[in-house]
Amino acid sequence: MSFQIPRGTQDILPGEVEKWQFVENTARDLCNRYQYKEIRTPIFEHTELFARGVGESTDIVQKEMYTFLDRKGRSITLRPEGTASTVRSFVEKKLYANPSQPTKLYYIGPMFRYERPQTGRFRQFVQFGVEALGSNDPAIDAEVISLAMNLYQTLGLKSLKLVINSLGDAESRKAHREALIAHFEPRIEEFCSDCQTRLKQNPLRILDCKKDRDHELMETAPSILEFLNDDSKKYFQKVQDYLGANGISFEVDPGLVRGLDYYNHTAFEIMSNAEGFGAITTLCGGGRYNGLAQDIGGPETPGIGFALSIERLLAALEAEKIELPITSSIDCYVVTMGDQAKDRAVSLLYEMRNAGLIAEKDYEDKKMKAQFKSADRHQAKYVAVLGDDELERNVIAVKNMETGTQEEVSIEEVISYLTSKL
Ligand code: HAM
């Protein structure tokens, strides 16, 4: 019997995993510069959290969650995204009571959605996301968007498009909602069954329907921007001013509605324009979600954040043919000849590694020539050759693989010799 990996998941093997580590380390460094601190929440939560947090009318909650009953019959869901869990923790652990606000958090971890797998779309994928809770300053909107752009740019991506929109505050949204219902209701039977449900639940989501995308009423639908009240307009203008001051170009797209229910005010997406990137071009999505903390039982708290998947980021790097500066060379490969030398190499390697050197040896009883080949494959900077003969004289021959020069040093001194050279 043989086993295959579940559809929509991947094994990330050595050779590829270094890219992931590089991207993750870059994201962590950047978060430190912006002073976002890491939060780690469970991979599964009570289903109700996502139903409330992400929203009953979303595709995620209706069709895409990995939900199961645990042994005590409680409904559990593998997290489809990180915002609901982060806000749950913020409320439950009373992070709002911390004198230093806003609370700026980030996470990197696997998310699960039962979607139809295709290029750039997985059932398990890794999101890097940030959430800033407790500030209503449009400068924090610009900061969050800038951080996302910064990550892509730091990694070398050039073909990026930032699209922003405002979904307005509660008052603006209510007015827009009524206009949308009046617009779609008379002909709602021409729309898919999902849209018919959305009409009453959340008519904004109709604008995001993939099935009815080409219906003529879509194009003439009332735009949110016409319904923004003065406060919402001012807020949106300020976000744009700050982005402009940071030198970040963007487009305003009144059709950008996002697929989750919790958004208001700023919504944004970053896409890749790279040729051959594929059908799914969205790299990153986010927005403001004032009210989410309250919806899940916490105090009224403004919040904004984004999430992006490492899978799509790596695909964008590939489409733009960007090589990450990953080095996999080692400091020293120990080549041995003879049984006693082979035994001595075991503790020598241990000492080298204790001293902080990246060191390796052969474990397959290879001939000397094959050991040298192995050293090459490891891109060893130095090769230390130890034969029984050298062992008797208490020396080891150290070869610099770049210059080809070789020196004999005493075994006791080889580590300090290498450390001084590297
Ligand atoms: P989202 O738009 O559902 O938003 O997902 C954000 C990002 O996650 C997408 O832009 C994409 O990079 C990645 N992603 C989503 N689904 C998949 C998939 N099936 N395969 C690969 N990558 C995927 C959220 O998740 C919100 N929590 C973002 C947010 C944070 N809003 C405020 N704070």
UniProtKB/TrEMBL annotation:
<keyword id="KW-0648">Protein biosynthesis</keyword>
<keyword id="KW-0963">Cytoplasm</keyword>
<feature type="domain" description="Aminoacyl-transfer RNA synthetases class-II family profile">
    <location>
        <begin position="1"/>
        <end position="325"/>
    </location>
</feature>
<keyword id="KW-0436">Ligase</keyword>
<comment type="similarity">
    <text>Belongs to the class-II aminoacyl-tRNA synthetase family.</text>
</comment>
<dbReference type="InterPro" id="IPR033656">
    <property type="entry name" value="HisRS_anticodon"/>
</dbReference>
<dbReference type="Pfam" id="PF13393">
    <property type="entry name" value="tRNA-synt_His"/>
</dbReference>
<dbReference type="InterPro" id="IPR004516">
    <property type="entry name" value="HisRS/HisZ"/>
</dbReference>
<dbReference type="InterPro" id="IPR045864">
    <property type="entry name" value="aa-tRNA-synth_II/BPL/LPL"/>
</dbReference>
<dbReference type="InterPro" id="IPR036621">
    <property type="entry name" value="Anticodon-bd_dom_sf"/>
</dbReference>
<keyword id="KW-0547">Nucleotide-binding</keyword>
<dbReference type="InterPro" id="IPR004154">
    <property type="entry name" value="Anticodon-bd"/>
</dbReference>
<dbReference type="InterPro" id="IPR006195">
    <property type="entry name" value="aa-tRNA-synth_II"/>
</dbReference>
<dbReference type="Pfam" id="PF03129">
    <property type="entry name" value="HGTP_anticodon"/>
</dbReference>
<comment type="subunit">
    <text>Homodimer.</text>
</comment>
<keyword id="KW-0067">ATP-binding</keyword>
<dbReference type="InterPro" id="IPR041715">
    <property type="entry name" value="HisRS-like_core"/>
</dbReference>
<dbReference type="InterPro" id="IPR015807">
    <property type="entry name" value="His-tRNA-ligase"/>
</dbReference>
<dbReference type="GO" id="GO:0004821">
    <property type="term" value="F:histidine-tRNA ligase activity"/>
</dbReference>
<keyword id="KW-0030">Aminoacyl-tRNA synthetase</keyword>
<protein>
    <recommendedName>
        <fullName>Histidine--tRNA ligase</fullName>
        <ecNumber>6.1.1.21</ecNumber>
    </recommendedName>
</protein>
